[in-house]
Design brief:
single chain, 156 residues, mainly alpha, 10 helices, 74% helix
């Protein structure tokens, strides 16, 4: 099967981990990601906490969330996106994976603190704080990538 455009593979993985691998023709890998996503989703009560969070019932979403399982989700999600993007021919520039790694890291940290972190008296919960944590992850990842490229160019 012909390789898909990297952006298309990335967007399908954002929609559902494993879809990017499937459109890239990596069926077994895609199926593994799909199974892991469903397993973690069910065990963490992810869909229910999304619904509660969107309805503003943050305390209920925190009470329902199974953080032991929810902690796996950011790394699975961002690894799936990176893998699909890379397999479709993306990320040929140096250190592109750093952006995905740091975003997974900051979203995981956001998940850890999501039951206690407040800003202006507002509790963010297991959905909103991790989503907001994407922004610093991308920024940190890009900054580190730029520093590594600059260092590499000076060494060469």
């Amino acid at each position: 099967m012909a390789r898909q455009k990297p952006t298309e593979a990335l967007l399908w993985s954002i929609a559902f981990p494993g879809f990017g691998q499937i459109i890239n023709g990596k069926y077994v890998k895609g199926l593994v990601f799909l199974i892991l996503e469903v397993l973690i989703n069910v065990k963490a009560h992810f869909n229910a906490i999304i619904i509660l969070s969107f309805h503003g019932e943050i305390e209920k979403s925190i009470a329902l969330a199974n953080y032991d399982w929810l902690m796996f989700y950011p790394c699975l999600y961002f690894f799936s996106m990176w893998d699909a993007f890379k397999d479709a021919g993306g990320g040929k520039k140096s250190y592109t994976s750093i952006i995905f790694v740091f975003t997974a890291y900051t979203v995981t940290v956001g998940t850890i603190y999501s039951s206690t972190f407040t800003l202006f008296g507002q509790l963010f919960g297991p959905i909103w704080l991790p989503i907001l944590s994407v922004v610093p992850g991308i920024a940190i990842g890009w900054a580190i990538k730029a520093l590594l490229i600059r260092f590499k160019n000076k060494v060469e």
